[in-house]
Amino acid sequence: MNRASTSKGTLLRLGFADTDAALAALAELGPAVDPPLLAIIGRTADPDSALHELARLVEATGDAPGLLDALADDEGTAMRLLSVLGASTALADHLVRHPAQWRELTDPTMGTTRPAGFAVREGLLAAVGADPRAEHPVATLPDAEAVDALRVEYRRVLLRLAARDLAHDMPVDDAAAELSDLAAGTLEAGLAIARQRVGESHAAARLAVIAMGKLGGHELNYVSDVDVIFVYEPAEGAAGADEQATLRAATQLASQLIRVCSDHTGEGTIWPVDAALRPEGKAGPLVRTIASHRGYYERWAKTWEFQALLKARPVAGDLALGREYVEMVAPMVWSAAERDGFVEDTQAMRRRVIEHIPAREADRQLKLGSGGLRDVEFAVQLLQLVHGRMDERIRPPTTLSALARLTDGGYVGREDGEALHEAYSFLRTLEHRIQLFQLRRTHVVPAEEAALRRLGRSMRLYREPVAALDRAWEHHRREVRRLHEKLFYRPLLGAVASIPGPEARLSSEAAGARLAALGYADPQAALRHLEALTNGVSRTATIQRALLPAMLQWFAEGPDPDAGLFGFRRISENLGRTPWYLKTLRDEGQVAERLAHLLSSSRYVTSLLEREPQGVQMLGEDLSPLAAEPIVEEMLSAAGRHDDPEKAVRAIRAVRRRELFRIAAGDALRTTDVAEVGKGLTRLTDATLEATLQVAGRAARAQRSLDEAPTRIAVIAMGRYGGFELSYSSDADVLFVHEPVEGADLHQATSYAQAVANDIRRLLALPGVDPPLQVDADLRPEGKQGPLVRTLESYAAYYAKWSKVWEAQALLRADAVVGDADVRRRFVELIDPLRFPPDGLSDDDVIEVRRIKARVDKERLPRGADPQLHLKLGRGGLADIEWTVQLLQMRHAGRVPELRTPQTLAALDAAGHAGLVSLEDAALLAEAWRTVSRVRNAVTLARGKPGDELPRDPRERAAVARILGYPPGATDEMVNDYLRRMRLARGVVERVFWG
User: Fold this and answer.
1) Confidence of residue 558 (pLDDT cuts 50, 70, 90)
2) Is 724 left (phi over 0), alpha (psi -120 to 50) or beta?
3) Phi and psi based region of residue 324 (left: phi greater than 0; alpha: psi -120 to 50; beta: remaining)
4) Measured in whole angstroms, how far is the alpha carbon of residue 993 from the centre of its chain?
5) Burial 432-464 (b: 16+ CB within 10 A, else e)
6) Percentage helix, strand, coil for the chain under 3-state DSSP, each rounded to 5
7) Which of 50, 255, 601, 987 is deepest in the core (most CB within 10 A)?
């Protein structure tokens, strides 16, 4: 074969970068490297390196035909050996030093059989001349020889493991488990050498080596510090012996074990043994008794130390003593979440780790950086420590095993669990491949093109390996960041962690006592709700068991926890099988907490939510009221799917019901200001009327077989509706106005408009699962005796001849927002001179306004109502404030344009700045108006039905106070604040309105 002229293209296609060097190596090796063997080399991480290292190994063996023929004859051996040579220069160097060990990779069972941990331990002990069957094995080889023999045997086992990992695609957790078994056996053999060094005095102490970190979790890397804690006790029969001698023997054993593993010799080193996780860290004694450990953990240990102990397990030395230590610390580990600030401390510690990453490494840190391995591990460990108190199934120390249990148990969503498992496996595999190259402890992804190419190919990314690796890494890093934020900062964690362990288990006895202590009026009924929600082994019941300890606490923070729990049960039974429901409560921000507070404080919101359970999803969103335009668009789209007018309007009302929930939830949670609540309800009513007007018009045309409407219709908002000040219980006060199209018959046009107006009122008042919208047209000319609809000309004639001052006052709040734009504009032009008279009011008109107000105060206050507590007609209430503002508008809007607004607060602000009232008085009235409006809305939210008087029932008052933001027990403070503001407002009304 003429390699120089015929093989360069082939070599390039196989992945070689330096074809000249490759051709030279092939010429040196001879024809034994045939095309099939060359193809195997081309599948390695770095074909150039694999070929170069093969040439070195052939030279080192002195038996080129034997090695090369074995590779040519056995594809399995070739794959294993060449995969190692192409991925790890460190293991290639080891093979060159010990060339006979290449035969280790000829074992045909290697691809399917994992060596047992005890077999690995026995081989390592035998390598240093220790008896594996002895209770305390002692090395018998000379010290330097034993230390080197341990390194050679460690590398031999590591070589076999790496070959299986690279050639047979071992799952990363299997490779990590084997590495952990190898490390445990190495510690045992190192301890045998340490016993030889210490001599007979070692028998004075029992020493257990407790694995921590990745070794403890059975998930060690190829190269990692091995974190340990040393525990000792006097040996059996040594009671009463010199305590210092025992301590000295244990300390010497631990110190020598560290040196055996960490020292550099002609055979290199193994890995550092790090005991810094012991009590007091490096400043503390290297070894302690169990009693000493217990005393430290009970008095001084910090949160992170218990998190570290989650992975503690005995791996070498006196295993019985090690198990005793683990049993001692386990209760402390699984109660650590109850420590004050546990969740916050854990979260802060993770942030500190990120902050201390060197800037030059931040973007390439695989372990500590954002979206790295630590993000997964911290999230999993935090979930374990919080929920593992109640559920022992989720306590495995291995990250992927724990994640699987958390996913199976419903603590992590299935899709999230799968994504996190995939990302963690990818990141751990990449970490392994990085470390394998030179067997160095590093977690930084290299930036060099050649190194990235080798890593990509080692992970089977042969097509554009650098770009493919970068895409895969970025994808998994992004997923880890997202899921870490979602799981690690889940609000539910802090709430569950704050509940004492026995109470968090929801056993009948503990739950019953806790329910009574939390303030549930009927603990037995509450227990029945709990049993209904949590019975069984389904995933739904499991997630409910995780949710309810925190939910019970949140319900108890409301004025009616029993109602909260009962409402939660009804909604859960309605939505329990809906995939998103429990997932949303568990994962999405403050949804569960918001839901609990709403159910325990607002009957109005609970009622809406029972009719619109999908609203639970909205609790994770911005609850600000929407503009009218998108609501109209959605309503018309929903209505358009129905030909029947009643069904069409029910679809419109369903949208309204959902948006009522948005507004009410934002109000009850105090995320929406009272003025914005009024505007939101007004815009929602605008949208509802606009959509219903179109449905009613379509029906009227169909009944009359009309292609076009004979008249153009507008709906004029009046009263609180016109003032953008609707409350939940308000009717929609309106005027209907129409203008026949050119050439239309007036009688036909009026009949059509009458039918549309009647249909709007009827359809929106139909009984249904949503709150009806009462459309009230009683403010029209002649009241109930007058026609329901009038033309513009008719309105103009009436106002010119018959209008009274009270009608001009009512028109102050007229806002033309629904229906034909031209008719609306012309109506406003018609009424402006009437409601904003250029010369203001005459003295007689002022007297008339005051007379009417006095009559209202006297006649409309319900019998038995307390004038101090009536929200609308009481002293300093809404009527007092609004009549005062309206009198100012009628008297002065002719010369002060800023007063020409239907909104009370806007008009009041304009009056203050125009000097019509003092700014202080304007502020007092504005604050009083906001207070009364908030209280009025809160009464409806709390009771579930309208009320114009501050409730007298203590529980209802408490609910109103909580919705207003007062702490528990502050009902009297709420009432006193209300009375004080009303008293101050009444004083201003006396001066400004009554003169």
Assistant:
1) confident
2) left
3) alpha
4) 54
5) bbbbbbebeeebbbeeeeeebbbbbbbbebeee
6) 65, 5, 30
7) 601
**Cα 367 off chain centre by:** 22
Quote the CA–CA distance of 394 and 355 in Å, as a whole number: 30
Which tokens go with 379? Answer: 């999230």
CATH topology of domain 338-488: Four Helix Bundle (Hemerythrin (Met), subunit A) (1.20.120)
The amino acid present at 206, given as its one-letter code, is: R
Tokens of 759: 């249909």
Listed range (195-204, 376-385, 397-406, 581-590) with the worst mean pLDDT? 581-590
917: left (phi over 0), alpha (psi -120 to 50) or beta: beta
Strand pairing class (789-791; 815-819) = unpaired
**Which of these ranges, 103-112, 194-203, 648-657, 934-943, has the smallest mean pLDDT?**
103-112
Report the alpha-carbon distance of residue 279 to residue 328 in Å, rounded. 15
Cα angle 445, 447, 451; round to 5: 80
Structure tokens belonging to residue 706: 């009309």
SS (H, E, C) 752-783: HHHHHHHHHHHHHHCCCCCCCCCEECCCCCCH
- Of the candidates 966, 979, 887, 884, the one whose C-alpha atom is nearest the C-alpha of residue 928 is 979
Residues with Cβ within 8 Å of residue 42, at least 6 apart in sequence: 13, 14, 15, 16
Instruction: Render pLDDT for 879-917 as a digit per residue (tens, 0 to 9).
Output: 999 999 999 999 999 999 999 999 999 999 999 999 999
Burial class (CB in 10 A: 0-12, 13-18, 19+), 654: middle
> In sequence order, which residues have a C-beta less than 8 Å from that of residue 566 and are 6 or more positions away?
525, 529
C-alpha 33 chain-centroid distance: 57
3-state secondary structure (DSSP) of residue 738: strand
Structure tokens at 521: 């009026």
Q: Which helix (H) or strand (E) holds 16?
A: none
Q: Is 0.85 surpassed by the pTM of this model?
A: no
CB 194 within 8 A of CB 232: no
In whole angstroms, what is the distance from residue 210 CA to residue 228 CA? 5
Q: Supply the DSSP symbol for 627.
A: P
How far apart are the C-alpha atoms of 326 and 288, rounded to whole Å?
14
Q: What are phi and psi of 552, to 5 degrees?
A: -60, -40
Domain with CATH 1.20.120.330 in the chain: 338-488, 837-995
d(CA 394, CA 384) in angstroms, rounded, equals 6
The topology (CATH level 3) of 837-995 is Four Helix Bundle (Hemerythrin (Met), subunit A) (1.20.120)
Q: Residue 240 class from Cβ within 10 Å (0-12 exposed, 13-18 middle, 19+ buried)? A: exposed
Distances (CA, A) of 838 to 93, 832, 895, 897: 102, 10, 7, 10
Question: pLDDT band at residue 3, thresholds of 50, 70 and 90?
Answer: very low
- Please provide residue 767's backbone torsions phi and psi, each rounded to the nearest 5 degrees: -60, 145
